[in-house]
């Protein structure tokens, strides 16, 4: 009865979902927050008090402004609301300043800017064709997609507990994806260009955007067999795209170019002085590489191949961002990671060019770009996995194969975020939210594809189930053992290495499925 | 989706909300010298762990009864003892005799919150789940979990248990009792109820319906044979659950405490009952002597209880039993002595049980009951969770029961009543619309009063203006609800009879 009423209410369920998650976010206001809270408070203070020319030079706090100019402007706008809450938080010298009003303001600013994300999810849901019309509202693909995006575990804990502004940034990205799916190319390009100047990490997925726009917008027609028709090249479209990108960049970087500060801005944005891995190892290829190095070192010491006195004593996951020397394997330079990333991205881009499959191909390429750069990037944060998980949600509800990959990637990716919240009061929250999201994604996708073969094979199931004992060991058993004093980093190491296996596997599986996919017959039928 | 995965999601969501609320403040946080209920519970742990069992209820040099003396029945004491044992394992300072008074720290808060969380998870939540699965009307598989979602997200209980600080054990046990009775396991049911009673004497609010229902059931089975056997077995159930509660401590001392504690105070704070509300007009406390007050309140309570109880004894039915639980508890809350704001939960939990039968009225009542707790929650700095969970609950009820479309007389179970009035009342056609606008009006009123009490400092000459306003408004609501529930109970079987005839 309730479901019927909800269906009658049309999009009423969407409002209920969005409202529900917003209430949950409000409940999390008193929860723990990380140093990112101070980072953003500092940026509020910098942009509020200093002239533009000082923004990228100010260094009172160690958390200097290292986001592109649009984000600085965003903080500037926020600071003009913040002054009504507590003017003290806008003083640059007030390092680590907190007050109840400050916390409220900062948390609420995240919750309110998330409305853009909610709108973007709404638009994405509209792009999904409702062919698989289900009687039950809970089994509608759009409903499932809305829950997977709005209630995404990673976004909830990273934004609303750990504290960051990813919500509205992902909102911009999803909105641009939705616009591209709706064939409103210029709008999509504009949104993505703006997004790039909010946070430059999205440059990792820029190849997908560039190639897709070039292929589907700049070339207006295909040959009958789906290959490119070179003559259909449209100069007008290229000019329009170029104009948009240049205008947005001019708006963002122009003032600094005039001030002659561009090199300073760039050096702040790309701090290659930081180490290969973040404080917590993101579960990527380099985590495996580092672990291999450690294992070889220990092995070498045991068998006396190595001289123990010459080995630098560096605890790799001590919590500080630092450079790290490998002992056995060759050390990795930024250039090497760049080349690896480039090589990893290349096939997916080629695939997008030569086997265009419309929005689906674009999304696949987007996810592959994000994942490949996550695998091989320099100083990757574990939060960057969201860049792959969120767009993959869009694919997961369309095909059983992608749904299986999504389940592996989302579960391991989200699990790898656990070390972000290390305080005891937040332990139940993160476990409960994770269970909530995981149980939902498994049961809903399973019921959505119940006519097809099982989403996961036995090996994948075993792998995912073993996350439970791993968590129990890391959070409950390990602190009781005597190892805690000598090897405090073991839980982090185990978590990132174990998750790295799953994410690598998901990456390879997705890559193989994309590369081996034939040019669909479906397109010809259309 | 599967029935069980939906239920799992419901429970996980409810648990998440509970833990998120528990991140906030608690009763008496950082307020020496007396602190609040949190300190009371901690103090009981200290007492039960360190003192021999026969000193628990007596004033000794080690046990100052004026400082949060143990004034709940023995089962509470045993529960405190178990908790204290675990506390001792973690940090002995938490329950050290004398020195631990007013102990507050982040780890200790975490421990206390966990004990409530575990109690909730083990007793209250399973009862709710099983109850929702046992509902006969659950034809659609989804309905059980929507019903459970609404019951588990009821903000009043969450805020009091996980915010203010209280254990949901007595209510959970009472729920188990109702559950057992609805499966016709009368003995188990009465045992569970006795346990509830032994946890908290406030459960007496529910005792009359239990008694009347079981008595009526015995009569119905015939005074010969089976009925008598059933009746005869209840004392054994009572005995089965009491002795281990009475084992150590002396019952008379306990009784003494309860009586001295309860008598001679008509009401303490600004409670949404009739005496407090009347005191706006007349200062009853000054006009009538305490003894007359006692008699008066006893008489009024008894009279208000009578119709529902007689009806239940004569025609015992499960449905009537649930409604009687609500109306009797509400009568006690409104008219009896020594009422605490939190006692409204004793009414709310039975109301939760009938939320699938009268979703509109139940939601309304649950919202008002949460609102009546507002002064208490403001004192505990729980405004944020209150302001979040209450609209969330309303939204959940709106989405899952679409309550605004269920305001006709039939949906409110007033069909029989309205038929008997039809000749006299001409405005009957617009009844649903009137009810709906009344609901919206009351919502608006509650919202405005909430905002005022939270944001506006009261005028200097009337410092209690807002709490009093909240109490009076809620009391008026409760009176109407009492009337409504009694009407539903009394006209109930006529409805059935007509159905049978037609």
What does this structure look like?
The complex is a heterodimer of chains A (526) and B (502). Chain A has helices at residues 2-8, 12-27, 35-49, 69-85, 100-127, 141-150, 153-163, 166-181, 185-196, 206-218, 235-259, 262-269, 285-302, 334-354, 358-376, 386-396, 400-415, 426-448, 458-465, 467-477, 483-486, 490-516, 521-525. By secondary structure, chain A is mainly α. Chain A has a domain at 277-331 and 381-518. The longest helix of chain A has 28 residues, at 100-127. Chain A is globular and about 65 Å long. The two termini of chain A are 38 Å apart. Chain B has 502 residues and is mostly helical. Chain B has one domain. Chain B has helices at 3-22, 37-50, 74-90, 106-134, 143-152, 155-165, 169-182, 186-199, 207-220, 226-241, 243-246, 251-262, 274-278, 284-287, 290-314, 318-335, 344-353, 359-372, 374-379, 383-401, 415-421, 431-455, 465-490, 492-501. The radius of gyration of chain B is 23 Å and the shape is globular. The model of chain B is unreliable at 240-253, 256-267 and 494-502 (pLDDT under 50). The interface between A and B is large, with 36 and 38 residues. Chain A: It is a multi-pass membrane protein. Chain A: Its EC number is 2.4.1.-.
Task: Return the string of H and E elements of chain A.
Answer: HHHHHHHHHHHHHHHHHHHHHHH
Instruction: Report the total helices of chain A.
Output: 23
* Structural class computed from helices and strand pairing of chain B: mainly alpha
Range of helix content of chain A: 55-70%
The radius of gyration of chain A is 24 Å
Strand percentage of chain B lies at under 5%
Unreliable stretches of chain B: 240-253, 256-267, 494-502
List unreliable stretches of 5+ residues of chain A.
1-9, 315-322, 521-526
For the record, the count of structural domains of chain B works out to: 1
N-to-C span of chain B: 39 Å
The quaternary state of the protein chains shown equals heterodimer
- Main sheet makeup of chain B: none
Distance between the termini of chain A: 38 Å
The average pLDDT score of chain B comes to 82
Biggest interchain interface, per-side counts: A-B, 36 and 38 residues
Give the proportion of residues in helices of chain B.
55-70%
Task: Tell me how many strands of chain A there are.
Answer: 0
- Computed over alpha carbons, the radius of gyration of chain B is 23 Å
Structural class of chain A: mainly alpha
Shape of chain B: globular
Task: Tell me the series of helices and strands of chain B, N- to C-terminal.
Answer: HHHHHHHHHHHHHHHHHHHHHHHH
């Amino acid at each position: 009865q309730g479901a019927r009423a909800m269906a009658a209410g049309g999009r009423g369920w969407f409002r209920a979902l969005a409202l529900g998650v917003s209430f949950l976010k409000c409940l999390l206001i008193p929860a723990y927050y990380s140093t990112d809270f101070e980072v953003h408070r500092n940026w509020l203070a910098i942009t509020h008090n200093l002239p533009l020319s000082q923004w990228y030079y100010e260094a009172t706090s160690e958390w200097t402004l290292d986001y592109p100019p649009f984000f600085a402007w965003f903080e500037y706008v926020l600071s003009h609301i913040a002054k009504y809450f507590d003017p003290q938080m806008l003083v640059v010298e007030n390092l680590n300043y907190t007050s109840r009003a400050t916390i409220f303001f900062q948390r609420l600013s995240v919750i309110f800017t998330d409305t853009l994300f909610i709108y973007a999810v709404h638009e994405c849901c509209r792009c999904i064709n409702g062919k698989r019309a289900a009687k039950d509202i809970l089994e509608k693909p759009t409903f499932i997609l809305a829950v997977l995006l709005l209630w995404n575990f990673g976004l909830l804990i990273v934004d609303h507990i750990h504290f960051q502004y990813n919500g509205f940034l992902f909102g911009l990205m999803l909105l641009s994806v939705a616009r591209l799916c709706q064939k409103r190319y210029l709008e999509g390009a504009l949104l993505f260009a703006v997004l790039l100047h909010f946070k430059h990490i999205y440059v990792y997925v820029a190849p997908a955007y560039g190639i897709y726009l070039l292929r589907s917008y700049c070339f207006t027609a295909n040959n009958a067999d789906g290959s490119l028709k070179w003559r259909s090249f449209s100069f007008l479209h290229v000019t329009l795209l170029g104009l948009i990108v240049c205008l947005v960049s001019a708006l963002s970087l122009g003032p600094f170019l005039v001030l002659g500060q561009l090199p300073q801005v760039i050096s702040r944005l790309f701090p290659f002085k930081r180490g290969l891995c973040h404080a917590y190892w993101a579960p990527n290829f380099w985590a495996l590489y580092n672990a291999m190095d450690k294992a070889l070192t220990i092995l070498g010491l045991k068998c006396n191949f190595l001289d123990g006195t010459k080995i630098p004593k560096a605890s790799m996951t001590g919590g500080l961002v630092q450079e790290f020397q490998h002992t056995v394997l060759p050390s990795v330079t930024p250039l090497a990671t760049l080349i690896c990333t480039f090589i990893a991205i290349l096939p997916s881009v080629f695939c997008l060019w030569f086997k265009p499959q419309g929005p689906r191909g674009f999304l696949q390429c987007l996810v592959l770009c994000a994942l490949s750069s996550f695998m091989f990037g320099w100083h990757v944060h574990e939060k960057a996995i969201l860049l792959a998980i969120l767009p993959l949600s869009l694919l997961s509800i369309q095909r059983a194969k992608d749904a299986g990959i999504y389940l592996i990637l989302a579960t391991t990716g989200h699990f790898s975020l656990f070390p972000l919240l290390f305080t005891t009061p937040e332990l139940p929250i993160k476990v409960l939210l994770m269970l909530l999201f995981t149980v939902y994604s498994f049961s809903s996708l399973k019921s959505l594809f119940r006519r097809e073969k099982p989403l996961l094979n036995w090996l994948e199931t075993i792998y995912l189930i073993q996350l439970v004992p791993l968590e129990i060991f890391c959070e409950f058993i390990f602190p009781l053992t005597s190892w805690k004093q000598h090897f405090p980093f073991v839980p982090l190491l185990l978590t990132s290495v174990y998750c790295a296996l799953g994410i690598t596997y998901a990456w390879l599986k997705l890559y193989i499925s994309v590369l081996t996919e034939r040019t669909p017959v479906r397109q010809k039928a259309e | 989706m599967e029935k069980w995965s939906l239920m799992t999601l419901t429970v996980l969501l409810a648990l998440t909300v509970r833990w998120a609320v528990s991140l906030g403040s608690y009763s008496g946080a950082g307020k020496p010298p007396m602190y609040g209920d949190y300190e009371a519970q901690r103090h009981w742990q200290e007492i039960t762990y360190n003192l021999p069992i026969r000193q628990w209820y007596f004033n000794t040099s080690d046990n100052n009864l004026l400082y949060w003396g143990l004034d709940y029945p023995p089962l509470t004491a045993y529960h405190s003892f178990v908790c204290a044992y675990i506390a001792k394992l973690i940090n002995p300072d938490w329950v050290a005799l004398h020195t631990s008074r007013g102990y507050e720290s982040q780890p200790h808060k975490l421990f206390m919150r966990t004990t409530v969380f575990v109690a909730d998870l083990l007793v209250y939540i399973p009862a709710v789940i099983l109850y929702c699965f046992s509902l006969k009307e659950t034809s659609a598989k989804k309905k059980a979990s929507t019903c459970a979602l609404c019951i588990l997200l009821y903000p009043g209980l969450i805020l009091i248990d996980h915010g203010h600080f209280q254990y949901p054990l007595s209510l959970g046990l009472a729920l188990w009792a109702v559950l057992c009775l609805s499966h016709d396991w009368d003995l188990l049911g009465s045992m569970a109820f006795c346990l509830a009673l032994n946890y908290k004497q406030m459960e007496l609010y529910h005792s009359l319906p239990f008694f009347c229902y079981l008595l009526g059931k015995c009569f119905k089975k015939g005074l010969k044979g089976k009925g008598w056997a059933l009746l005869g077995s209840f004392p054994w159930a009572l005995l089965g659950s009491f002795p281990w509660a009475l084992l150590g401590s002396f019952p008379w001392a306990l009784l003494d405490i309860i009586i001295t504690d309860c008598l001679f105070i008509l009401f303490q704070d600004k409670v949404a009952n009739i005496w407090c509300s009347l005191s706006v007009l007349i200062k009853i406390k000054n006009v009538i002597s305490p003894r007359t007050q006692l008699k008066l309140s006893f008489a009024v309570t008894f009279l208000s209880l009578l119709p529902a109880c007689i009806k239940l004894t004569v025609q015992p039915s499960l449905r009537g039993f649930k409604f009687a639980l609500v109306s009797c508890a509400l009568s006690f809350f409104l008219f009896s002595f020594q009422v605490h704001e939190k006692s409204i939960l004793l009414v709310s939990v039975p109301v939760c049980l009938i939320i699938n039968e009268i979703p509109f009225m139940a939601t309304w009542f649950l919202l008002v009951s949460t609102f009546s707790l507002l002064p208490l929650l403001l004192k505990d700095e729980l405004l944020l969770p209150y302001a979040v969970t209450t609209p969330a609950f309303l939204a959940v009820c709106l989405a899952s029961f679409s309550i605004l479309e269920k305001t006709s007389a039939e949906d409110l179970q007033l069909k029989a009543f309205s038929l008997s009035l039809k000749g006299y009342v001409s405005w009957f056609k617009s009844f649903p619309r009137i009810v709906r606008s009344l609901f919206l009006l009351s919502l608006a009123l509650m919202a405005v009063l909430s905002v005022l009490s939270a944001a506006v400092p009261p005028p200097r000459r009337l410092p209690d203006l807002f709490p009093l306003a909240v109490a009076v408004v809620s009391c008026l609501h409760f009176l109407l609800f009492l009337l409504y529930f009694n009407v539903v109970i009394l006209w109930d079987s006529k409805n059935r009879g007509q159905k049978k005839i037609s």
